[in-house]
Amino acid sequence: MFKEDMANIAKKVSWSSRGDDRGERAPLLNGAEDGKHSNRQFSGGGMFHVGSRSTVDLEEEITPEEDIVKSRLKEIPHNEKLLSLKYESLDYDNSENQLFLEEERRMSHMGFRCLEIRRWVICGLIGFLTGLIACLIDIAVEELAGYKYSAVKQNIEKFTEFGGLSISLILWAALNSAFVMVGAIAVAFFEPIAAGSGIPQIKCYLNGVKIPCVVRLKTLAIKVFGVICSVAGGLAVGKEGPMIHSGAVVAAGVSQGRSTSLKKDFKIFEYFRRDTEKRDFVSAGAAAGVSAAFGAPVGGVLFSLEEGASFWNQMLTWRIFFASMISTFTLNFFLSIYHGKPGELSSPGLINFGRFDSDTVQYNLYEIPLFIIMGALGGMLGALFNVINYWLTIFRIRYIHRPCLQVMEAMLVAAVTATVAFAMIYFSNDCQPLGQDSTEEYPLQLFCADGEYNSMATAFFNTPERSVRSLFHNPPGSYNPLTLGVFTLVYFVLAVWTYGLTVSAGVFIPSLLIGAAWGRLFGILLSTITSSQSIWADPGKYALIGAAAQLGGIVRMTLSLTVIMVEATGNVTYGFPIMLVLMTAKIVGDYFIEGLYDIHIKLQSVPFLHWDAPPTSHWLTAREVMSSPVTCFNRVERVGRIVDVLSNTSTNHNGFPVVAHTTENEEPGKICGLILRSQLIVLLKHKVFVERASSRLSQRRLQLKDFRDAYPRFPPIQSIHVSQDERECMMDLNEFMNPTPYTVPQETSLPRVFKLFRALGLRHLVVVDDENRVVGLVTRKDLARYHLGKDGLEELQLAQT
């Protein structure tokens, strides 16, 4: 998850002491503990500029004592009461300048219809490609895990007779570690953002935060490769979470009609090269990912609505649903060919819980309180999971921040997982008869009598998806209570430890597996207490409810998770109990700690905006939260001043109000518009100066296409050469600025500012006085600073990292 994006921070800011020049920022965080450095008010317009290392040069300021402490401890101080300035905001508000309006007015009704058709085509492509990726992951994991388990099984059977089982253990641990090592090296050394499931990063992206590298092609390649390695390596992880990230990356790439990583432009879909359109497609990609993972198209749409998209409309819902349907269909179709039954579309997603038949498994009114108790239990266990993982993640940020250490930790966990699994199978004497209709893929006899198999091996000697299915569907009596109790405890510890490693992996399946194990145990205990062997205490039903409770307790999703579980089990009968259990789990869990994804977002210090402003913030006004003084430009500005302002690394603003005239005595001017850093850079690159236009040196008029071609990686100002003569030229901003930016009076209350900013997806909100003069600028970090703590409203400090 966000876990080792922590590692990502570590690489970007070089908290590791590898020999590059980025280490100069580490002391800033040291200082940030007591607010020495972090309490600077960063004034003015822009969102924070990613990776601008030279903001504060602390090279000379490190005292010898600090140096000694640094070399001795190798510890990164971490303070979650910080808000990182390294994240920029996305701009979901179209800049309605003259160029934009001219283009829109030129377009006919037919032109707009064609655009709409293109949007549908892109959504279909997103669904198709996401389904293909899911298919690739599934087949690769099946083949690799099949090879591994059959090799180890043959080895165990050989040595059970002759002794020397320790060799089997070494083989199993070595195979696990080898797979995981390859996956971890790819993630830690090549693309740390691909670690975890990627759901928190996508949540942030859809919230309007630009997470560096999150939707790059390289990230997708490492993600897919990493998830195959970590699942085949037997870690307590699932491949469902990363599918959501993969779908989002596919969407971001396809909708732009080019790949900036491969430097290949297909010259299609150029109209969609802006944040507004890209966001809508990314939410469709995330939905297609959920749909491929669980075979739940409606669940995918609801996931995007609940967890992701901050902005929504009806047409978008239809397109997202279309992408989800295509994704599930593609996966089914190709998997049916792989399984040798072309055209049979009955296995919906990467995880198929199998069908629960209504007639065999019913529930009664008197079971509802039992379900609520299970929900509360799931909430408490989920909160415990999150608390332990929170402290573990902080430990990782502080001490395990070098890529080589991260790879070693991942290998250690893989070896320990294999060792623990082996020990539990070895010492378990829970033998079950191997029937004719047994669904066991790799039944291990070990020390059981002929015709029997070890039931602990069913849980451990399998891919986690298969284990979940066997817990749901194996007939009553397949497991004894001790096996389930020990398995729950051990797998809980392994899952907490695994989540946060530098590997691509999700938390969905481990959560379901833990919940299914204690849910089944709950069912078995119920039937022993009531002693009557009645059908109502069917352990498979309680396994399903337990799985829902545990997953809900960890990730705290309600709406989408209910539908996903109902669609994955193929039975609507359980809709009500699952919903009840998930709501109980969320209410109980939230009492102790936030959901897992929110914790990791907070640990990243991301300026994430929730749905509403903090409840007690009415006494704050725009004047108190805004950044000031603001750097403004005149409508016709000298090129030299523009270059100097853009090159000033201590401010790194990204938006500049354009005023009628700036006076010498710093009196604020009346607002005429707003221009972005990216627009100014394109203007400088094309040398759009007043003098060149009048002397007819300019070959053609700048078009919107020039701005779209530079998106999304605009060149840095340092790469643009401006001669001394050109510095004296003038630049007319009238045509390119947005003449109608959103503004608020300085007396506006914080909740009102927040609502406007959040609902419209703004990047800059200009604050004006009663004469319409610019007095300040509100950006995302100004609003995200305020949150509700234990003692009422708290203000977070701003830090450079």
Automatic annotation (TrEMBL):
<dbReference type="GO" id="GO:0062158">
    <property type="term" value="F:chloride:proton antiporter activity"/>
</dbReference>
<feature type="transmembrane region" description="Helical">
    <location>
        <begin position="507"/>
        <end position="530"/>
    </location>
</feature>
<keyword id="KW-1133">Transmembrane helix</keyword>
<keyword id="KW-0868">Chloride</keyword>
<feature type="transmembrane region" description="Helical">
    <location>
        <begin position="120"/>
        <end position="141"/>
    </location>
</feature>
<dbReference type="InterPro" id="IPR051280">
    <property type="entry name" value="Cl-channel/antiporter"/>
</dbReference>
<dbReference type="InterPro" id="IPR002249">
    <property type="entry name" value="CIC-7"/>
</dbReference>
<dbReference type="InterPro" id="IPR000644">
    <property type="entry name" value="CBS_dom"/>
</dbReference>
<keyword id="KW-0812">Transmembrane</keyword>
<keyword id="KW-0406">Ion transport</keyword>
<dbReference type="InterPro" id="IPR046342">
    <property type="entry name" value="CBS_dom_sf"/>
</dbReference>
<feature type="transmembrane region" description="Helical">
    <location>
        <begin position="404"/>
        <end position="427"/>
    </location>
</feature>
<feature type="transmembrane region" description="Helical">
    <location>
        <begin position="220"/>
        <end position="238"/>
    </location>
</feature>
<keyword id="KW-0129">CBS domain</keyword>
<keyword id="KW-0813">Transport</keyword>
<dbReference type="Pfam" id="PF00571">
    <property type="entry name" value="CBS"/>
</dbReference>
<dbReference type="InterPro" id="IPR001807">
    <property type="entry name" value="ClC"/>
</dbReference>
<feature type="domain" description="CBS">
    <location>
        <begin position="737"/>
        <end position="795"/>
    </location>
</feature>
<dbReference type="InterPro" id="IPR014743">
    <property type="entry name" value="Cl-channel_core"/>
</dbReference>
<dbReference type="GO" id="GO:0005765">
    <property type="term" value="C:lysosomal membrane"/>
</dbReference>
<keyword id="KW-0472">Membrane</keyword>
<feature type="transmembrane region" description="Helical">
    <location>
        <begin position="316"/>
        <end position="338"/>
    </location>
</feature>
<feature type="transmembrane region" description="Helical">
    <location>
        <begin position="281"/>
        <end position="304"/>
    </location>
</feature>
<protein>
    <recommendedName>
        <fullName>Chloride channel protein</fullName>
    </recommendedName>
</protein>
<dbReference type="GO" id="GO:0005254">
    <property type="term" value="F:chloride channel activity"/>
</dbReference>
<dbReference type="Pfam" id="PF00654">
    <property type="entry name" value="Voltage_CLC"/>
</dbReference>
<feature type="transmembrane region" description="Helical">
    <location>
        <begin position="482"/>
        <end position="501"/>
    </location>
</feature>
<comment type="similarity">
    <text>Belongs to the chloride channel (TC 2.A.49) family.</text>
</comment>
<feature type="transmembrane region" description="Helical">
    <location>
        <begin position="572"/>
        <end position="593"/>
    </location>
</feature>
<keyword id="KW-0677">Repeat</keyword>
<feature type="transmembrane region" description="Helical">
    <location>
        <begin position="368"/>
        <end position="392"/>
    </location>
</feature>
<feature type="transmembrane region" description="Helical">
    <location>
        <begin position="542"/>
        <end position="566"/>
    </location>
</feature>
<feature type="transmembrane region" description="Helical">
    <location>
        <begin position="169"/>
        <end position="190"/>
    </location>
</feature>
<feature type="region of interest" description="Disordered">
    <location>
        <begin position="1"/>
        <end position="43"/>
    </location>
</feature>
